């Protein structure tokens, strides 16, 4: 059984895309990212240029084409269950939930927006329903 490479306490659910270490939570990812050493990328030889904000949007195909070694990747068939769920459709009829989702999508700091949304019982209900559908 594997354990989190950051906290050494929990079973890891995620893998760092840059260095491939396993971690268990957002907190562990945040602790790890400051010291992450990407594997397989040569050191830049020219002057260091700070990356600007990437405004390119991701498509569903981009997300589904991610690395094949991701252990917790949700199969397409399970993702399609989200679109077929009457319970999710009913929840999405709520304008407050739709506004929460829009605010997360447009936030500069998605992590902070998610943390704030998780304080809303309606959003927690929505998240739980999504996980229930894809975790079966």
How is the topology of this model organized?
Elements: E1 14-15, E2 22-23, H1 26-33, H2 60-64, H3 76-84, H4 86-92, H5 95-106, H6 110-117, H7 121-135
Antiparallel strand pairs: 1-2
Helix pairs in contact: 3-7, 4-7, 5-6
Q: What is the compact description of this entry?
A:
This protein has helices spanning 26-33, 60-64, 76-84, 86-92, 95-106, 110-117, 121-135; strands at 14-15, 22-23. It is mostly helical.
Which properties best describe this structure?
two-stranded antiparallel sheet, mainly alpha
The dominant shape is: globular
Mean pLDDT: 78
Pairing-aware structural class of the strands and helices?
A: mainly alpha
Distance between the termini: 21 Å
User: What percent of residues adopt helix (DSSP H or I)?
Assistant: 40-55%
Strand order of the largest sheet: 1-2
Q: What's the Cα radius of gyration?
A: 18 Å
Major β-sheet, in short? 2 strands, antiparallel
Number of helices: 7
Description:
There is one protein chain. This protein is mainly α and 136 residues long. It is built from seven helices and two strands; from the N terminus they run E-E-H-H-H-H-H-H-H. The protein has helices at 26-33, 60-64, 76-84, 86-92, 95-106, 110-117, 121-135; strands spanning 14-15, 22-23. Strands 1-2 form a two-stranded antiparallel ribbon. Helix 3 (76-84) packs across helix 7, helix 4 packs antiparallel against helix 7 and helix 5 runs antiparallel to helix 6 (110-117). It starts with 13 loop residues before the first strand and ends with a helix.
């Amino acid at each position: 059984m594997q354990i989190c490479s950051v906290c050494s306490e929990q079973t890891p659910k995620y893998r760092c895309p840059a260095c491939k270490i396993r971690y268990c939570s957002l907190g562990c990812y945040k602790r790890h990212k400051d010291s992450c050493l990407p594997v397989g990328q040569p050191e830049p030889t020219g002057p260091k240029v700070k990356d600007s904000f990437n405004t390119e949007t991701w498509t569903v195909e981009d997300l589904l084409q991610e690395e094949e070694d991701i252990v917790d990747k949700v199969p397409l068939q399970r993702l399609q269950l989200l679109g077929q769920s009457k319970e999710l459709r009913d929840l999405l009829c709520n304008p407050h939930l739709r506004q929460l989702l829009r605010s997360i999508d447009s936030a500069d700091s998605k992590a902070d927006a998610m943390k704030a949304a998780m304080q809303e019982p309606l959003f927690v209900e929505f998240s739980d329903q999504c996980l229930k559908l894809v975790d079966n």
